[in-house]
User: Which sequence fits this backbone?
């Protein structure tokens, strides 16, 4: 499972970085979203990956990482998702504003001169 | 037990969290007011900003006056025991930064009240949220909480940068948002790695845990710390991560650019706070990790900023590059990890923040003077009153100086005189020429560097002097273009409320130099606390939750 998760993070980061470096604003937006998914998965996996373990303490079961999964990365991811979503939405608005003002979708507001 | 005493104690106890809660409450209230009531919102904003500054000054007095035992004020927002809950910590550095943020905020707001606050509906709300993010980032003692406050201040700064609209702002805003989103993602990766290594997010706890991490985790720790540092240094405009700054700051409206003068300092603050806590001398194999990178990165930034100042044609871009140069100076000086050098650097931080804000506010007024120059003269009969330095004959009996020029008696329009004086004072502070605060700061750093006797130290010594020369050359050139070629044109029209904040900021610089001794002593104590993280750790880990006396009553009610 570690291999699959790390591959997923790697592929999304690679695709995200490539898209962020593209000259079209929408590609940058999608790249930022992919990067933020990758980062969220990364934070999630920092608390050690486990199947079928809860973060809530049950009576009679010692509270350690053998029996439970770490709850803190989950709460961090939740916060990061909310913040990332809001700022990406803001980026989308600015993207549309630039498109309206410049009439194109180049990140610099104008096409490069050959 | 003692009712009166607890009532008196209450406000003091909550003083640490008050600067964060006040702007939040004000912003929420202003959102409820909707899009109308601009006058009321302006009044609310002003009242809240002034109160915030007063609170910050109270905080500074509380932690700054007295001995080392009183140097820390702690607040547990959720009343959880320390390593588990979020903790707010006010030490001398936090209080100093909070006062700077409050001062710069007040000046920018006063300036905005003249004209700019009418350019957008939510200016006042965004302004308050920006202040909340700033105060929060300076006061928090928790790594993830720092991320949240960073995002609050960044989100507000995106809105403020776009304030006033226009293609240039939207284009610069797009770049600014993209860069900062990527930097925030780096921040998250760094935080996650540190958490993975140490298992805590409390900065003081982190500092303790990092001393005993197994050798196999050290590589991961260094990678995480480096990624985190990249996020902060991009914010602090370290070369080569600073290409976004000049266009963004030049495109921002004047009061917003003035407020942004403190934003790069947030990055510097975060680096300083975490670096001194995580990698002090006593941190074993990780001691002083990244010191060289900070020093040489700072030196490169300083050189880059100085050369770019010389090369820039617009005053707004020049001001942006001066912010970069001051960032470079700070990071390089702090990277040496010498308390004496750090105290000079902290003094420089205070002085350069105030002067940077004043310079950004002056940019627009000076540009307005130039626009007047292009526009047709409005009042022909006012030409008599304008100064003619070239052809004027001194009247008989006036005092003449060495060059046979009259020393008294010429009517210079008040606006032009104000602009000239303010610009000169700004130049003196930014370039670090005597007798103002910039000189005191640079002298303090230069003196220490002489005793340091180190390779990088000599480079910083030389660069500090050369950068002062570059700054004075660049600013003088701009000054000549703006003031000496303006003789036959009508003077620009300024309002009192536009000149007041600039005057206040420069008065701050003046006070810093007049009370330079006291200020330097405060900075020295700040630097001493900073470079001995043990005291910070003891203070934070020693904080105890308030005993839940109030909880007894509900518990009794719940039993039957």
Assistant:
């Amino acid at each position: 499972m570690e291999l699959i998760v790390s591959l997923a993070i790697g592929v999304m980061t690679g695709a995200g970085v490539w898209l962020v470096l593209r000259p079209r604003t929408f590609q940058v937006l999608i790249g930022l979203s992919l990067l933020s998914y990758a980062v969220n998965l990364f934070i999630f996996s920092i608390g050690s990956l486990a199947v079928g373990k809860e973060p809530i303490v049950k009576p009679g079961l010692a509270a350690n990482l053998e029996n439970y999964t770490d709850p803190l990365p989950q709460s961090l991811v939740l916060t990061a998702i909310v913040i990332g979503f809001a700022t990406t939405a803001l980026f989308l608005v600015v993207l549309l504003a630039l498109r309206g003002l410049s009439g194109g979708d180049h990140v610099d507001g104008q096409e490069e001169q050959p | 037990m003692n009712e009166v005493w607890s009532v008196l104690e209450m406000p003091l106890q909550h003083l640490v969290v008050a600067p964060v809660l006040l702007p939040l409450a004000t912003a929420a209230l202003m959102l409820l007011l909707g899009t109308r009531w601009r006058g009321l919102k302006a009044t609310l904003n002003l009242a809240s900003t002034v109160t915030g500054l007063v609170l910050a000054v109270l905080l500074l007095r509380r932690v700054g006056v007295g001995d080392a035992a009183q140097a820390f004020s702690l607040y547990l927002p959720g009343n959880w025991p320390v390593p588990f809950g979020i903790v707010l910590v006010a030490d001398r550095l936090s209080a100093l930064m909070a006062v700077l943020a409050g001062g710069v905020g007040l000046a920018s707001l006063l300036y905005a009240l003249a004209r700019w606050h009418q350019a957008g509906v939510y200016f006042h709300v965004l302004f308050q949220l920006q202040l909340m993010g700033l105060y929060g980032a300076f006061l928090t003692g928790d790594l993830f909480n720092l991320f949240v406050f960073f995002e609050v201040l960044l989100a507000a700064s995106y809105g403020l940068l776009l304030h006033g609209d226009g293609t240039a702002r939207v284009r610069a805003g797009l770049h600014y948002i993209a860069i900062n989103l990527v930097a925030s993602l780096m921040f998250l990766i760094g935080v996650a790695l540190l958490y993975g290594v140490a298992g805590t997010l409390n900065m003081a706890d982190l500092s303790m845990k990092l001393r005993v991490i197994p050798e196999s985790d050290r590589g991961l720790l260094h990678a995480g710390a480096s990624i985190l540092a990249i996020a902060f240094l991009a914010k602090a405009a370290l070369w080569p991560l600073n290409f976004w700054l000049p266009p963004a700051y030049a495109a921002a409206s004047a009061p917003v650019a003035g407020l942004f003068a403190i934003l790069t300092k947030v990055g510097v603050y975060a680096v300083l706070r975490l670096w001194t806590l995580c990698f002090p001398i006593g941190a074993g194999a990780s001691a002083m990790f990244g010191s060289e990178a900070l020093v040489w990165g700072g030196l490169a930034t300083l050189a880059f900023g100085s050369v770019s100042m010389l090369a820039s044609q617009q005053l707004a871009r020049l001001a942006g590059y001066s912010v970069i140069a001051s960032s470079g100076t700070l990071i390089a000086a702090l990277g040496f990890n010498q308390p004496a050098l750090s105290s000079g650097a902290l003094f420089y931080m205070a002085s350069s923040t105030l002067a940077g804000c004043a310079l950004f506010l002056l940019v627009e007024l000076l540009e307005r003077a130039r626009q007047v120059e292009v526009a047709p003269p409005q009042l022909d009969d006012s030409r008599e009153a304008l100064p003619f330095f070239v052809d004027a004959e001194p009247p008989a009996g006036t005092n003449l100086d060495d060059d046979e020029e009259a020393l008294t008696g010429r009517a210079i329009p008040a606006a032009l005189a104000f602009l000239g004086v303010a610009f000169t004072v700004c130049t003196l502070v930014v370039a670090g020429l005597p007798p103002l605060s910039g000189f005191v700061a640079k002298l303090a750093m230069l003196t220490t560097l002489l005793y340091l006797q180190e390779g990088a130290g000599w480079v910083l010594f030389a660069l500090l002097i050369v950068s002062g020369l570059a700054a004075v050359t660049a600013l003088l050139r701009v000054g000549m273009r703006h003031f000496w070629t303006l003789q036959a044109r009508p003077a620009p029209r300024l309002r009192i409320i536009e000149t007041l904040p600039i005057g206040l900021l420069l008065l701050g610089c003046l006070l810093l130099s007049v009370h330079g001794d006291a200020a330097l002593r405060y900075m020295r104590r700040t630097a001493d606390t900073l470079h001995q993280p043990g005291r910070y750790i003891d203070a934070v880990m020693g904080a105890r939750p308030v005993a839940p006396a109030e909880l007894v009553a509900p518990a009794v009610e719940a039993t039957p």
In short: Residues 54 and 72 of chain A are 12 Å apart (CA to CA). Chain A has one domain: 2-51+68-102. The domain at 2-51+68-102 of chain A is CATH 1.10.287 (Helix Hairpins). The helical segments of chain A are 2-20, 25-46, 71-102.
